[in-house]
Specification:
CATH superfamily: Class II aldolase/adducin N-terminal domain
Bound molecules: zinc ion
Shape: globular
Number of strands: 8
Structural class: alpha+beta
Length: 212
């Protein structure tokens, strides 16, 4: 079997960083990464605290979702992760959080519009809302993949956030950035009417990397 030990270390470190950053509380949230060669997916386990999580707690699954390494049960959202990888060949990491400012907009089912210039190269534009689907289902992954067509992150209606990337680091930075942009948009809304980044500027700074 392919050696995914480096990927496991990256997943563990980044999941702990996300917990410390406040992107999720308790045992909620989950992170996975896909090995480029073998297609194996390393994913965080279900219902386990992040501060004491070790490499042995991580679960490795094959393309069909069978556990091939680890004694824990995979995250309850493993079907969502698997479906996103199936739909999006350019995605190699999926980070699911419940970060509070972004999740507030997910509850309103309101996209975060492009109010910061950095949202354009980081996310691809606004932060859209994926249509509602039950947690733990493959359908949720399908709805997320639809919302992510030209974006690096989206909100999940009445639920939270998914950020994806070509690496664990990219998915993590996007998850952090989604929360940061949502917080700033929230503050701006509370004191006035936010202005959007002009369309022409969006066209000029759009990164080809997040398109398609
Ligand atoms: Zn969740």
């Amino acid at each position: 079997m392919a050696d995914v030990s480096a990927l496991k270390e990256e997943v563990l470190e980044t999941a702990k960083a996300g917990y410390r950053e406040g992107l999720f509380k308790g045992t909620s949230g989950n992170l996975s990464a896909r090995d480029r060669g073998s297609g194996l997916v390393v994913i965080t386990p279900t219902s386990l605290p992040y501060d004491t999580m070790t490499l042995e707690d991580l679960v490795v699954m094959d393309r069909e979702g069978r556990v091939v390494e680890g004694f824990r049960k995979p995250s309850s959202e493993w079907k969502m992760h698997a479906r996103i990888y199936k739909e999006k060949e350019d995605v190699f990491s999926v980070f699911h959080t419940h970060s509070p400012y972004a999740t507030a907009f997910a509850v309103l089912r309101q996209p975060v519009p492009p109010v910061l210039t950095e949202m354009i190269p980081f996310i691809g534009g606004d932060i859209p809302v994926a249509e509602f689907a039950l947690p733990g289902t493959e359908e949720l992954g399908l709805r997320v993949a639809e919302a992510l067509r030209e974006r690096g992150a989206c909100l999940l209606a009445n639920h939270g956030v998914v950020a994806v990337g070509s690496s664990v680091r990219e998915a993590y930075l996007r998850a952090v950035y989604v929360e940061d942009a949502s917080r700033i948009y929230h503050h701006a809304l509370s004191v006035g009417t936010p202005c959007l980044v002009p369309e022409e500027a969006i066209r000029k700074i759009i990164s080809p990397a997040v398109r398609g």
